[in-house]
Design goal:
about 425 residues; alpha/beta; ten-stranded mixed sheet; four-stranded mixed sheet
Length: about 425
Amino acid sequence: MVPATIVLGTQWGDEGKGKFTDLLAKEMSMVVRYQGGHNAGHTLVVDGETFALQLVPSGVLYDHIVPVIGNGVVVDPFVLLSEVDMLNRRGIDTSRLRVSGNAHLIMPYHQQLDALHERHLGKSKLGTTKRGIGPAYADKAMRLGIRVQDLLDEGIFREKLHASLLHTNKVLTKVFNRLPVDPDALADKVLTECLEPLKPFITDTTDLIHEALEADQHVLLEGAQATFLDLDHGTYPFVTSSNPTAGGACTGAGVGPRHIDRVVGVAKAYVTRVGAGPFPTELFDDVGTKIVDIGREYGTNTGRRRRPGWFDTVMLRHASRLNSLTELAITKIDVLDTFDVVKLCVAYEIDEVRTEKLPYHQSELHHATPIYEEMPGWKTDLSEIRRPEDLPAEALNYLKAIEKHVGVPISLVSTGPGRNQHLRLPA
């Protein structure tokens, strides 16, 4: 049996996971999205053409890949079908797509609740994408959720929708002073517009994945968001509502840990985050603005400006422990091409005490002052470099410093957004 590979983010998301998932997919037979929803976008550039994917796994662009949406994902059926339609119109075959019957559905009232909760929080808002992700996972935890498989039995679907809205309508009317949702009208809309086009995709994906593994096929498990947005291990409450970490791949795809032997952690050559929350290396000066401008650091789905900062090896060491990283893939190093000096955060100072560990108490993280190692920039355009021996010494030293401080080898380096703009470092 060939073990599976996980690709996941090691920072606060937007690391460029989609590109490396797409790159590694060449070696795979199946790509499985294991958590999250359409709040996370993957941007792929192939032959100068840009594809912004939200729910469909990155491997869909390869003819030999079976793209799978696993049980740990929350699926807005209208968004999924819109994305499938977009891909079909652009000549991409989506007939191989499979969706877990155990994945939970995002309903329109989840999006309504998401926006209302954010507004209610005021200055304490979390900065969600208002896509209904959190409320859908909350219903799942309260056993009020509706699964993809429920669409296949109209009676069950209507019954579960009525039960769920019995609770939700009380919240909408009594807490937020909004009109209730008509369960019958919503059921009619979903069944009429979504059932038939979705039906060919719905299956037992856990069985499908294990059949592939038992046939010695390579399976790639693709995470959305990133380690420090993990519900349990991230900077709570400024996190997502699922587990993007390696453990989440097991539960979100139905694969035990003994079937996984490679965990690729993707990290940007600097750090960004969207929304609120602590960020020790955040830059508020012209350097930060320059990173945002050159790196086009705006959300794929939301268009929101990302908060920029220098690379943080303290975070990455912790991410390595949480995920059992076997290798690193570094993206967007080319964004730093024109900088005279580049910096790595190698430790924090908290209450005049130096620490090289991520503090478990968030109050300390909020007040952590980064301790930097400064290095000369390479002042060279890296976009055309494809071989490690052609890297400027300064760029190679920057990568080696990351390896040294994190203790995980770098195997892949992206030098631009295009599929071919990358190089592999020797083991």
